[in-house]
Every structure is written in structure tokens, then in C-alpha cells.
From TrEMBL:
InterPro entries: Prenyltransferase_related, UbiA_prenyltransferase, UbiA_sf. NCBIfam families: prenyl_rel_EboC. This is UbiA-like protein EboC. It is found in: Membrane.
């Protein structure tokens, strides 16, 4: 049982739930929920969710594989440095999840398959090289989330060409979280935290812009307001006292809050019922975050 929990810890299950929210938001952006009945969408939605679960899990597992030596110093309690899971076993575990993610995507068209492979490459590139670069690393991590949003949009492949630029929003958001996460162990810079706050504001403004042009801004505000509170309250505490634990809480809140951000997207491109179905994932992610580490 202890070893099984070690494998589950490698997957960061609370984070995996947020990746499902990305895909559901992408499906909402594609217009599928408005064009097709749920009975028709069931299998495609399930397959895309399986794909993102596989791809995200594979990426986060390989993050620990590549960080094994560093974690011996900074996070010795993690499954690999603690000896609970061997580096070889973790590598196989991550490869299996990547295979599942790509195999599920291959059941769709070429666009979905290309996106799935691109996500895997982006994950491995970040884990192996980019994470050590102050600018490229955050952008690379953001790219993984942006492509994940488009993975959902690809349920109607032609919609990817129309809405590809929306991936810039999660790229900016995740890049900002990645930048501040570098202060989790030794503390961070107030200037970096202020910069993250500006990027957060840009993300919120972008979603509200589309809400004014395509949706009902009053409905979107019902999701954006709690999203803003969830990310800014811990960030402001970290700005006041930028020690490692405070930054860690800001990062954790930022990751889990992705569910609310994705619900806001769904409220713009679909309706409140789809958005609410995404929000249901929030308590699940929070519950899992209490049992398993997010970062």
C-alpha cells in the first residue's frame, strides 16, 4: 500500500484534475456542447479526458525522474529520493501514461494526435532542459497548458485554427505561477511576485473581454470573482512576506484555481451549466491536494 501511494504521489492527482478542466473548457470553446447533445459527446469527451490524464501524469512523473538528484537535497521526502519508487520504475510508469495519452488522442483526427505529441514533447523539453532557464522555462510550462486547452478544442479540429490564440492566456497564467514557484524552497523576490500579480490581472482582463463580446459577463463574473480571490489572497500574503511556505501556498492556490478559470471560459463559450460542471471538479482537486502534494 505504501508503494502504491508512492506511485500516486508521483502523479500529483490534484493537478491531474485541473488538466481535465482544461480539456472541458477547450471543448466548450469549440462549441461542441452547444452543437451536439451529451449522448453524442460522451465517448469523445471521455477519450479526451483520458488523453489529458495520460499526458499530464506522464509529464509530472518525468519531472520527478529528471529532478531525482536535486530532490535528494531539496525534497528528500518525494517517492524517488526516499527510495519508495526507483528511478527506473518511475520512468516506465511515466512512459506508460504518455502512451495512454497519445493512444487515446489517436482515436481522433490528425489535429488531436499532433497536439498530444506536442504536449508530450513540451513536457519532456521542460523537464530535461527548459526548467533551468529563467524565461524559457516558465513559457515552456505555460505552453503545456495552452496546448492542453487546444486538445479540448480539437474535438472539432477546424476550431483549433479559429481559437488557437486563446492558448496564450493559460500560457501567460502558468508562466507566472512557474516564475514564482522558484521561490518555494528558499524564498522569492517581491518584484517577481508583483510581476506575477500584473500577469494575473492580464489573464482576468482577457477572459472578461471575451465575456463582453461573446457571453453574459454577469455569469462569467460568478466564476471570475472567486478565481481572482483564490489566486490573489495567497499571492498578496506572499508579497508581504516572501518566504518559501507562503510562496508555496500561492503556487498551490494558483494551480487549483485553474478549475475556476476554465469554468469562466466555459461560461463565455457555452453556458452556466457547463461551467458549473467544471466547478464540481474544484472540491475534488482541493481534497486530493490535502492528501497529495501539488508542487
Amino acid at each position: 500500500m505504501k508503494k502504491l501511494l508512492g506511485y500516486i504521489r508521483l502523479m500529483r492527482p490534484a493537478n491531474v484534475v485541473t488538466s481535465v478542466a482544461d480539456v472541458l473548457a477547450g471543448i466548450a470553446i469549440s462549441g461542441s456542447f452547444s452543437l451536439t447533445g451529451w449522448s453524442t459527446l460522451q465517448l469523445p469527451v471521455i477519450l479526451l479526458c483520458i488523453s489529458t490524464i495520460g499526458l499530464y501524469s506522464g509529464g509530472i512523473i518525468f519531472n520527478d525522474v529528471y529532478d531525482a538528484d536535486l530532490d535528494k537535497i531539496e525534497r528528500p521526502e518525494r517517492p524517488i529520493p526516499s527510495g519508495l519508487v526507483s528511478k527506473k520504475a518511475a520512468t516506465i510508469f511515466g512512459a506508460v501514461f504518455f502512451f495512454i495519452g497519445i493512444a487515446a488522442a489517436n482515436l481522433f483526427g490528425t489535429t488531436t494526435s499532433v497536439l498530444a505529441v506536442s504536449i508530450m514533447i513540451a513536457c519532456l523539453t521542460y523537464n530535461r532542459w527548459a526548467k533551468h532557464h529563467s524565461i524559457l522555462g516558465p513559457l515552456n510550462m505555460g505552453l503545456c497548458r495552452g496546448l492542453n486547452l487546444l486538445l479540448g478544442v480539437s474535438i472539432i479540429s477546424s476550431q483549433v485554427q479559429q481559437w488557437w490564440f486563446l492558448a496564450l492566456v493559460p500560457i501567460i497564467y502558468i508562466a507566472s505561477i512557474t516564475m514564482i514557484s522558484r521561490g518555494e524552497v528558499h524564498g522569492g523576490s517581491k518584484n517577481m511576485l508583483y510581476f506575477a500579480a500584473i500577469l494575473y490581472a492580464i489573464v482576468i482582463a482577457s477572459i472578461l473581454f471575451f465575456a463582453t463580446t461573446k457571453g453574459d459577463i454577469r455569469i462569467t463574473l460568478a466564476f471570475i470573482v472567486p478565481f481572482a480571490l483564490m489566486i490573489f489572497i495567497p499571492l498578496l500574503k506572499a508579497i508581504q512576506n516572501p518566504i518559501g511556505p507562503n510562496i508555496g501556498k500561492a503556487v498551490k492556490a494558483g494551480v487549483i484555481a485553474l478549475i475556476l478559470m476554465n469554468a469562466a471560459w466555459a461560461s463565455v463559450f457555452a453556458d452556466w451549466k457547463v461551467a458549473l460542471s467544471i466547478v464540481i471538479l474544484l472540491p475534488l482537486s482541493i481534497l486530493l491536494s490535502k492528501a497529495f502534494a501539488v508542487t
